[in-house]
Protein 1
Amino acid sequence: MGKGTLVARLRERMSGLGLTVSATTRAPRPGEIDGVSYHFMSEEEFDRRVADGEFLEWAWVHDHRYGTLASEVERVVSGGLSVILEIDVQGGLAVRSAIPDAVLVFVEPPSMEELERRLRGRGTEDEASIEVRLANARSEMAHAADYDVRIVNDDLARAVAELEDVIHTYEKDGGHAHDVRDQA
Ligand code: 5GP
């Protein structure tokens, strides 16, 4: 399972969490629904929204552009929920600059071999895309130390429980301004 499964399981267990729907220029996979999985958009529409300052962050990931629309964060917050962004490292670091209270959780695969096995097992990517994703995962690992918390995604139940703990701790203390590590 990947980050998506982890977040889905977390939301089954915890109320009060809302997930933003990202925008992307990549093509939908079979079964993905526009406005639910992603806001799928053309290069032109993405360009226009960047120019209009509509993104909290955006980045090139795996040869396509992905981004978080500020309106998505507002939608979740106005529903009284805490916001989860499931985004890449470039996006994570950009969000930290924009929102210093944000808590960055790095979800890492048990190993590169296991990540490769999962990507192939999922059967949604062609060989070239798998290679790009593996190369990106290696370079993302270099930023793990910049994150507030690291969770190894080997055992789903344990990883979900860890993530739940992290959220409880930070919610109780009002975000990153009161980092759990400050009390260590
Ligand atoms: P996928 O193509 O498999 O749906 O997503 C590829 C990667 O894009 C995900 O692993 C995720 O890290 C990243 N991603 C998805 N949405 C966003 C976003 O809104 N912003 C950024 N920076 N990355 C995203």
Protein 2
Amino acid sequence: MNRQIPAAAFTHPYFGQALGHLIGGRSVPPAAGRMMPAIDPATGKTLAHIPDGTVEDVDLAVATARQAFEGPWSKWLPWERHRLFMRIHDAIERNFDELAHLTTLDIGTPIGKTLGMKQYALKAITYFATQTTNIGGQTLPNSIGTGVTTMTVKAPVGVVGGILPWNVPLVGLWWLLGGTLATGCTIVLKPAEYATLTVLRLVELLYEAGLPEGVVNVVSGRGGTVGQALAEHPGVDRIVFTGSVEAGKKVIMASASNVKRVQVELGGKSPDIVFADAPMQLAVPGAAMAVYNNCGQVCTAGTRLFVERRVHDAFVDELVRFSRGMRVGPGIAPDTDMGPLISQAQLDRVMSYIDGATPQGATLVTGGKRLGGALSQGYFVEPTIFCDVRPDMTIAREEIFGPVISVIPFDTEEEALRLANDTVYGLGGAVWTQDLSKAMRMINGVRTGTFWVNCYDWMDAGVGMNGCKLSGYGGKGGPSHVESFLYQKSVYINHTYTSDTPPAGAGLRA
Ligand code: NAD
């Protein structure tokens, strides 16, 4: 698994530079002049410096976004928005290789995977383009009188604050940009400290494609300062947060200042259930990659792997074989299957979960070590599997956000359901079986916002993903997603022009 890796040939104009925020379509230096490094997690080396922003930077970005919202942008016609989406589509398509390589170096995701996100991103942009013509209210019947027409109309909520995690910027951004641009909102994005480069470059491309000044702005910096300031800001009408439960709770509390609309997508400890009749050729790689994808740093990672006891040992053997075949290394190497963790802090956190599992009674069957040699400067850890895991152990209860699978056997469907639901989280989940009735019982019984059958982590912008319990609320993508960037107005039109109908309180008269 530990390989010699050739040096990366890719370079980028950002590298070695001190970058600014992106406010009003222009690079703006941080007001306080403070910077922080963007680090390649495969080597520990600094790629560039990004602003360590402050409240003043957030104030400027929110004022800029407000000004853009008050201007012609929020009144653009659907076809104008649609055309903009098409230009953005083409700009992203033309520049995707660059975005993918930049992302791979900035956060470590294997290049095959980041390049593979191209189709996803382009399909998402196309989906949101179609939504520009779908925004409308209803004409509703009323009991006031025949001379009165009543209806609802939809209007953009205004300035959105978007606080992002670092794990999938190439994909995660469209959940925010799609609704914003389709509806005429404007936005201030706060990328995660560890994944700012992709966000800056992608937003630059939006402007190259013709985005009006100030519609999308980026303020980089830390969660406790920039993120908190955005969540509290009286000039922000809606906050969309994706990240940990701990930070999500702070965002919800801060948003009360001006009663913002809030959407929070938080952590998970997703159940992945393998029945004895599973299509094993799919279930083995599927269950492994449900965790090893992005080095376990995916909110929906299927880290609690429930395997029917009569196939448990054989399944674990195959899972171990698969894990040992994983090529771990820098994401930029074309044959890498799994890259590094994002940071030293994340590596320490994951290793502390691994080190704590055996003393609690779990059996380490493969992996469990940090990689050394040529990889010692990066934050690499082996694909790791624990067996004999009890549901009450720490590794079975807490989100690790690393490549660690906890295998737990079960005997009956009822037991599988009980174990799957024994968690504070409710994000993703899956079942592997060829019995459709059994699959339906799992779909109906497992309490999660997103569920897969004989696949994992599949995602489509038109279908979306949701969460429940501590995993948050609000959903991304799907029919109700664009709605969440709009507010609804109830309209009463008196077209009788007679003195019979008083101009006020007509409905209450009777
Ligand atoms: P994090 O909570 O540390 O950071 C997320 C973002 O919130 C970052 O931009 C950070 O700077 C900001 N932030 C931190 N404290 C803040 C505060 N007090 N106020 C405002 N903003 C603050 O999470 P992370 O480490 O970047 O990402 C990992 C977590 O995100 C995991 O728990 C994962 O499950 C979750 N996640 C969830 C989804 C989902 O859709 N449900 C998607 C990706 C990641």
